[in-house]
Amino acid sequence: MAKINSNYTNLQENYLFVEIAKRTAAYQKAHPEARVIKLGIGDVTRPIAAVAADAMIAANEELKHAETFRGYGPELGYKFAKAAVQRYYANYGVDVDFDELTIGDGIGSDLANITDLFSSDNTVLIPDPVYPLYKATSIMDGRRICYLECSIENNFLPTPPDYPSDLIYLCSPNNPTGATFDYAQLKAWVDYANACGAVILYDSAYERFIADDDKPHSIFEIEGARTCAIEFCSLSKTAGFTCVRSGYTFVPKELVREGVSLNRMWQQRQTTKYNGAPYATQRGLEAALSAEGLRQADENIAYYKRNVQPITAFLEQKGIFYCGGHNSPYIWMRCPQAMTSWEFFDFLLNTVQVVGTPGVGFGACGEHYFRLSTFNTYEATQEAMERLANVL
Ligand code: PLP
To answer: What are the two backbone dihedrals, phi and then psi, of residue 168, each rounded to the nearest 5 degrees?
Structure first.
């Protein structure tokens, strides 16, 4: 008889966004006339850069003709896509070899699949609060988790602990808090990981939102990172590719544990268990990372950043603590009147039909906090704040 991976029974009943969708749908069913404004789920709303969309249309057109048709592509990514990523990294002064890059279908899968390379005995350090995937995938693998508690006291930025560890997920800019490491703070993590032999799994999904010059976009801007870090970066939020699915993972050749190259292991893993990202999406990635693609993507990011102002102006006027919004598309606010984050969720849904994300869904330290996203339209964001002003 097949035995199941019983670690799955340790997962929470409802994944955060499933529960939000369930409660919102139940409300809409009971109040079909209500116009709910969604400042909750972290999905983009602006269209993909035309230059990237056109590149994907042209790539699919190629497949219609015998002369330009393609079959399986290279599992680790086409050279043209790697070249685009290499040029992008060069903007940040980071050198990367083609052999160090893999092109995938977004980074949710790579952030989870990378753990195949490590023994399940490894302890994982996970910031709290943070994007829930790191915790869920560690639970599925049966790994021991130590949480790095983040709060107002440490500006929601974890510092290395005073004990050694094995694997460390870091997310900068952080989802949900927007907290972003500066060079010195990230260097402290790199030094710590090199000293104890840990590996940092660095999620830079929101790097394009960084506005401050004193914040690194890549962990490989930090000296010493090549011997202790793996970086994951997605086009989902950078270029609006959430439905296209495209991202890249950078495993440096110098990263060796127990005498074995992790770069080599990741290549073995991907060439065995993954048959490569679609040709058209890789053409889309190439175009999205071109000068014109980035210019168009940055226009969308500027649009989202304009939504920060109505939200923060409202919170400031009410004297409610918040952070984020500057280097990230999220604003992290304290729930008023000591409400729990799910109480505040239900309060907003029931009184003003505004949906946000309860902070506790990102970890225990997120309790009494709430995440508002800037991915809706400017008009809807403004209206949401007007509605909130009526009840807060
Ligand atoms: N990492 C973070 C911090 C995210 O917020 C998300 C998506 O919201 C992802 C990774 C997943 O990205 P992708 O769409 O590339 O799978």
So the answer is: -140, 120
Distance CA 148, CA 159 (A): 8
pLDDT tens, residue by residue, 187-240: 999 999 999 999 999 999 999 999 999 999 999 999 999 999 999 999 999 899
> Residue 373 pairs with which residues in a beta bridge?
330
pLDDT of 105 reads: 97
Q: Is 123 exposed, middle or buried (0-12, 13-18, 19+ CB in 10 A)?
A: middle
> What is the per-residue pLDDT across 16-58, written as a single tens digit (0 to 9) for each?
888 999 999 999 999 999 999 999 878 899 999 999 999 999 9
Q: Which two tokens stand for residue 32?
A: 């079909």
pLDDT digits (tens, 9 = 90+) for 227-246: 999 999 999 998 999 999 99
Residue 203 Cβ < 6 Å to ligand 1: yes
User: What burial class does residue 13 get, using C-beta atoms within 10 Å of its C-beta: 0-12 exposed, 13-18 middle, 19+ buried?
Assistant: exposed
Pocket residue to mutate for ligand 1, from 102, 109, 175, most atoms within 8 A of Cβ: 175
